């Protein structure tokens, strides 16, 4: 069932245009309609006064990205917390704040317990974003959006992550519409962007030969830093997690503006620095953060898009996606960091689909 692929992770990375198209299908049909989230969704979502997202690992990073979309588009406050932390603290609660759990498997114990805890604190509405039908977490929720990624077998999450992101973007747009913050023209434009997304993701997949070449250099490293800003900071986090999980190279991610508050001390010739730098409002800031790295001898590996106008120079390597895709850009930029981790793992000879010490579904504390 691997077909032409060597590993499930590779197969699942390449399935993303289809997984995204399948997940988006109903959205393109209905528009940003509450019905996408279940029967009682229109009434429940209309009451929402804030959003509390709970998840673990890669799913948590999807949640971090959603915070940028939700606060910018809906005017609602959005908080994102790691489920295993939330469940053990005296959290502030509001009955009309929507609990959103994100879980590929729908069985992650900490996420399930965080949901139960949120209920006990009085939250009235809970939405699950999940890839496995009828699993525990959606069953315990009032509303559900199933991502249609298909079975994800590789331990490192790939297609589940990008489909979670479109589900969360759909939630942001739907809440915005319910609150009168999405004009018909804007809705049509966002739906067009969603329609174009699988094609843009395919363009990113086509960068694989260039990323493969970079990965050979990474395989010999002991550490790596990932930088991003704004919407692309969670993608830097995801890139660092993918690299750690399957190559066992130590990697950390920072919002690029934090560099000078500590991590810059780590930068020297031996430290590769991956930068997620498409053309967004913070690009000029990112460019000056990159100069801070170059000045200390750090080698930069930059994922950009055609509009960010980078060229290769001494110690600066650039891979560009063909065009800037606006507000969905983090979804497209998840692809190159997945491919980088995958090819670096191959070069190191690690077990890509079953990294040491990790399980696909974490049903213990
Ligand atoms: C990383 C990874 C994990 C999961 C986490 C949550 O590649 O797969 O970090 O994202 O264990 O799992 P789910 O989404 O099933 O709750």
UniProtKB/TrEMBL annotation:
Question: Which GO molecular function entries does the Swiss-Prot or TrEMBL record give?
Answer: carbohydrate derivative binding; glutamine-fructose-6-phosphate transaminase (isomerizing) activity
Instruction: Give the GO cellular component terms, alphabetically.
Output: cytosol
Enzyme class, first EC level, given as a word: transferase
Q: Name the keywords, alphabetized.
A: Aminotransferase, Cytoplasm, Glutamine amidotransferase, Repeat, Transferase
- A GO biological-process term: carbohydrate metabolic process
Full-protein residues shown: 245 to 609 of 609
Q: Which residue ranges does the record assign to the SIS domain?
A: 41-181, 214-355
Gene field? glmS
Does Zinc appear among the keywords?
Answer: no
Biological source species: Crenobacter luteus
Reactions catalysed according to its record: D-fructose 6-phosphate + L-glutamine = D-glucosamine 6-phosphate + L-glutamate
Entry annotation: catalytic residues: 360
| Species classification | Bacteria, Pseudomonadati, Pseudomonadota, Betaproteobacteria, Neisseriales
Query: What role does this protein play?
Result: Catalyzes the first step in hexosamine metabolism, converting fructose-6P into glucosamine-6P using glutamine as a nitrogen source.
Q: What is its EC number?
A: 2.6.1.16
Its assembly, as annotated, is: Homodimer.
Is Transferase a UniProt keyword of this protein? Answer: yes
Query: Which compartments is it annotated to reside in?
Result: Cytoplasm
Put simply, this protein is called Glutamine--fructose-6-phosphate aminotransferase [isomerizing]
